[in-house]
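Structure ticket #2291
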Amino acid sequence: MSDEKLVGIVLVSHSAQVAASVAELAKGLAGGGVTVPVAPAGGTEGGGLGTSAELIAAAAASVDRGAGVAVLTDLGSAVLTVKALLAEGDELPADSRLVDAPFVEGAVAAVVTAATGADLDAVEAAAAEAYTYRKV
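Resolution: structure written out below.
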């Protein structure tokens, strides 16, 4: 399967370390088969806590393979930043979508599903379904 038709995943956290670690975890749990394009977009340009529209846009461009980009976020202002980028209309690749999902579990589900060659709707559904995962 060609990487060119895979959904890209962007993980937006207030912390660069959290975004990078969740990306590493999700890719690791997806197995060694198809490599899904995943990019962390954490923190600010200066390395502080927060979110950066520029880092998010660059991450989305880096994972765009023409099948859409699923963007998962951790906390409130990350959501607002992604919504603002989507409203601009030209800041993110075509078919970029903010996915309502838990950050860690949703990221794993999104990457595992994208690795099967699933489309953006299926990747979004798998990530959102992670809200139903019970721990007890």
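Closing remark: The mean pLDDT is 94.
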